[in-house]
Amino acid sequence: MTAATTAFNDLLQRYAAAVAAKDVDAFVALYADDLRVFDLWGPWELSGIAAWRAMAAGWFASLGDEQLRVTSSGAHATASDGLLVGHATLTFTALSATGELLRSLDSRLTVAARPTEGGGWRIVHEHSSAPIHHETLKAQLRRAPTTATPP
Q1: In contact, 13 and 101? CB cutoff 8 Å
Q2: Cβ(5)–Cβ(85) under 8 Å?
Q3: 27: number of CA atoms within 13 Å, CB side?
């Protein structure tokens, strides 16, 4: 695993922990003040940390007593000239307060991050997406099993 992928996996683990704890401060701490987000949900785009904080506060509050688990797969990143670019598939799984599965979906994620003075990374751009079925124009929110062998 490359150092860039290790750094990206660290960001993904901190993201998952912040979401699981519904911790808005920990969540927005992953992002730069001047970030821009093209999210799968909600507005066409969000610009700046204040807009992202408001989105996170609303999202976490909407969950009520539900638990949300985020896992990642296929994470890969590269870093060059002070920019880390990574991509992964995230799975969001909602559980009831008693642990019963409520729903689950997959989302493709691409991020660009800048280094911080402390040696970490802060996300400056995030893009989440899902493929759209041409005939139905519906998003495919579950990743289809693949049979192809990776290169």
Answers
A1: no
A2: no
A3: 21
Question: CB count, 10 Å around CB of 2?
Answer: 11
Residue type, 79: A
Would you identify the CATH topology of the domain 3-129? Nuclear Transport Factor 2; Chain: A, (3.10.450)
The single residue listed with the structure tokens 């041409």 is 134
Tokens of 108: 């493709």
CA 140, 142, 143, 147 torsion-angle sign: negative
Beta strands in the chain (DSSP E): 31-38, 46-47, 67-80, 83-95, 101-115, 121-129
Residues 3-57: tens digit of each pLDDT: 999 999 999 999 999 999 999 999 999 999 999 999 888 788 999 999 999 999 9
Going 131 to 134 to 139 to 140, the CA torsion angle's sign is: negative
Non-local CB neighbours of 15 within 8 Å, separated by 6+ positions: 27, 30, 70
Token digits of residue 82: 């002070």
